[in-house]
């Protein structure tokens, strides 16, 4: 465990930003404007957001994430297989470390595509009753002796989004939403972010 915190993450979706809300909720002025941590998947946080510390949430159906197997292949890559049990909507972020690269995976047709941050993003959604999500990827270890093995091969983050049901609400979130003026249409849910290094 490197760090743990919890709070209300506020993203402005209106083109005017958040300026018309802060007179009604001055507490937002004291919030922290989040910064991107380039070395972490998904910047370690949603970009361009404000963050107000709040009590931790405890979903009745918390995310369960585990590495099922890690094996060296005959062609020199390392194949890692994972299993995830979580809500109907999750996002997976894969960020290979310096000197490493993904060579194949079990998603879609197997074609690897990364975003501008040079990380791979998978959006997962399912119906209400579905088996555990299992996936794998092959990663090519660094060839250079300059790269420390202590840093690991890849950082992996997974976000669980609870859009409905009791897991999608909390008392601090409900109290905060009541403070918005009647002309605001907030969209809210509970989300958790877990980051791992392998």
Summarize the structure in words.
There is one protein chain. With 198 residues, this protein is mostly beta strands. It folds into 2 domains: 81 residues, no CATH class; 99 residues, Immunoglobulin-like (Sandwich). It contains 1 helix and 11 strands; from the N terminus they run ββββββββββαβ. The strands form 3 sheets. The chain has a 4-stranded antiparallel sheet, with no helix packed on it. β4 and β5 form a beta hairpin.
Write the layout of secondary structure elements.
Elements: E1 7-11, E2 32-33, E3 49-53, E4 64-72, E5 78-85, E6 89-96, E7 101-105, E8 120-125, E9 133-140, E10 154-162, H1 171-178, E11 190-197
Antiparallel strand pairs: 1-3, 2-3, 4-5, 5-9, 6-8, 6-10, 7-9, 10-11
Summarize this entry quickly:
The chain contains one helix and eleven strands.
Please tag this protein with its features.
four-stranded antiparallel sheet, Endoplasmic reticulum metallopeptidase 1, 198 residues, ERMP1-like_C, 1 helix, Immunoglobulin-like, 2 domains, globular, mainly beta
């Amino acid at each position: 465990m490197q760090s743990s915190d919890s709070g209300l993450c506020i993203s402005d979706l209106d083109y005017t930003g958040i300026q018309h809300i802060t007179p009604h909720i001055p507490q937002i002025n004291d919030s922290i404007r989040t910064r991107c941590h380039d070395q972490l998947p998904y910047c370690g946080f949603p970009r361009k957001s404000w963050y107000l510390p709040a009590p931790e949430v405890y979903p009745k159906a918390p995310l369960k994430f585990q590495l099922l197997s890690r094996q060296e292949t005959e062609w020199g890559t390392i194949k890692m297989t994972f299993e995830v049990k979580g809500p109907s909507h999750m996002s997976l972020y894969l960020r290979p470390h310096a000197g490493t690269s993904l060579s194949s995976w079990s998603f879609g047709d197997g074609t690897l595509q990364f975003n501008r941050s040079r990380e791979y993003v998978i959006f997962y959604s399912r119906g209400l009753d579905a088996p555990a999500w299992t996936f794998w990827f092959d990663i090519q270890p660094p060839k250079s002796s300059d790269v420390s093995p202590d840093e690991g091969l890849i950082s992996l983050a997974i976000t669980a989004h609870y859009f409905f049901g009791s897991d999608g609400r909390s008392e601090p979130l409900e109290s905060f939403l009541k403070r918005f003026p009647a002309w605001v249409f907030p969209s809210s849910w509970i989300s958790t972010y877990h980051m791992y290094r392998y």
